[in-house]
Amino acid sequence: MEVTNKLVKGGEFIIKETSAQGVFTPADFSEEQNMMHQTALDFVDKEVSPLLDRLDNHEEGLMRGLMEKAGQLGLFGVSIPEQFGGLDMDFTTSLRVTEGVGGGHSFPVAFAAHTGIAMLPILYFGNEEQKAKYLPGLTSGELMGAYCLTEPGSGSDALGAKTKAMPTEDGGYVLNGQKMWITNGGFADVFIVFAQVDGDKFTGFIVDRDTPGLSLGNEEHKMGIKGSSTRQVFLSDVKVGKDAVLGEIGKGHLIAFNILNIGRIKLAAACLGATKMAATLSVKYANERVQFKMPIAKFGAIKYKLAQQAIRIYAVESAIYRAGMDIARMEQELLSQGQSHNEALLGAAREFAVECAILKVEGSEVLDYVVDEGVQVYGGYGFSADYPMDRAYRDSRINRIFEGTNEINRMLAVDMILKKAMKGELDLMGPAQAVQAELMAIPDFNTEEETGLFAAEKKTLGKLKKAILMVAGTAVQKYMNSLAKEQEVLMNIADMAIKVYTAESTLLRVEKEAAAQGEEAVSTQIDIARVYLYDTVDQVNKFGKDALASMTEGDEQKLLAMGLKRFTKADLYNAKEARRRIADKLIAANEYVY
């Protein structure tokens, strides 16, 4: 498999092996990036955490007040140009800040809605007048924003919105419709609203809160993120001028989908921050809770849980910042080609839309896993609303629905990979045909000893990628243009890709850090990478078997099953002892330390 150390393309990880030295890892964070992260952490610790109960009770003005403070600190302006009052920092820094606020329960929901889906449409698609009018206030915290896409009858099918925008004689529009689940709805000053012009031209509009005809429903009663404001927005003969049109008539889908690419990886970063907080709570409680005359942290069953939390957190963190820097590097490449700042970042995020979708899924599901096991570590106290795991557990669940459900994102990831292949942007055909030829050939029993850290693991990863190509290639051959209807198969393939991308990211991170610090210094990180890959092999095998069993039979099925077995074979590994070493380091530090 080809090894690349140059500028990579989105989805390319399936067909190429990446050099560890070319991958960005958390060890590469700059002093400025760490400083901004610490600022966000301190804000959550000192300003947000003491108010969580009051926020959940929707104390009037409390969330808005916190948001205004965050704006004054500069946290809203990380990605905003200096001319609009921002700090104009790079994409990785914005991810770092998002991670920093991630442990703030309802606060990062309000924060992400404002700095992401409310501000970025104006930054990237607004004209100069719109930017000058809104961005300074949104950046400073003087103005608050909300994003109105979802409707009672259109969630995942966003383009099926029924809200109408009827043109008027003076060039303006009259908006009528209903929007649902609008974050920040209760205190927003500016709404990004999507509506159908002439019945079928999906278009974005900027609507001010005080526009006659715009009204709000009551606060929704939610399972979690109770402190965030979530309301319906009603539009009854809302008259706006032509200067309210965001972007072009009929091109609202470009706004919605491009902003979602950025939103997905940022959601993963926010989930990452929450996982680290929950893991630290788990370790602290396990050290404090005494049963059978010893802290429960000393028991193997609890060590397993603490270690698995850390393994999955470390792995998804590796993938998030690998992809984040890939986006940043592509942005710089597009800037060097003469594209504007806005075009470059949108283009870079679009190039890595596959990875953004993958990370949204994995980030949200890792958080769900970590808080669920956190409740289990706490035992009966985990089920009590007087202990912190209650809120963490409830607040986690929404992330698998936000920014496109995880089911939609799984299918989208595979669909985008296949479309890139059909457009000639990604050469899947050559590697897929090579895998088919390998299936028909006599297996290579060459047992030549590999050398170097992770040499065997890299060989295993290469075979897992062949498994993806084999299963995906079979699906394309079987279903052709009707593959989109075979959602279960698409999700099987997506899960194979998610696990392989995350496992590879983890190996590359540890390999790079071992080269810099020495293997002994990162010995437990080596354990993390090996355990994660060990688990991944069986998971890829299961997803692959499910897909093949559903679309093949007879001799073809036997041949492909043999191939899958060959590609998902790995030596036994003592994961129990590795997990104990990982957990012991957490227990000694009394916090998440990786």
Automatic annotation (TrEMBL):
Residues 30-142 form the Acyl-CoA dehydrogenase/oxidase N-terminal domain. Residues 463-566 form the Acyl-CoA dehydrogenase-like C-terminal domain. PROSITE patterns: ACYL_COA_DH_1, ACYL_COA_DH_2. InterPro entries: Acyl-CoA-dh-like_C (IPR049426), Acyl-CoA_DH_CS (IPR006089), Acyl-CoA_Oxase/DH_mid-dom (IPR006091), Acyl-CoA_Oxase/DH_mid-dom_sf (IPR046373), AcylCo_DH-like_C (IPR036250), AcylCo_DH/oxidase_C (IPR009075), AcylCoA_DH/ox_N (IPR013786), AcylCoA_DH/ox_N_sf (IPR037069). GO terms for molecular function: acyl-CoA dehydrogenase activity; flavin adenine dinucleotide binding. Residues 250-413 form the Acyl-CoA dehydrogenase/oxidase C-terminal domain. Belongs to the acyl-CoA dehydrogenase family. This is Acyl-CoA dehydrogenase, middle domain. It comes from Hymenobacter daecheongensis DSM 21074. The lineage of its organism: Bacteria, Pseudomonadati, Bacteroidota, Cytophagia, Cytophagales.
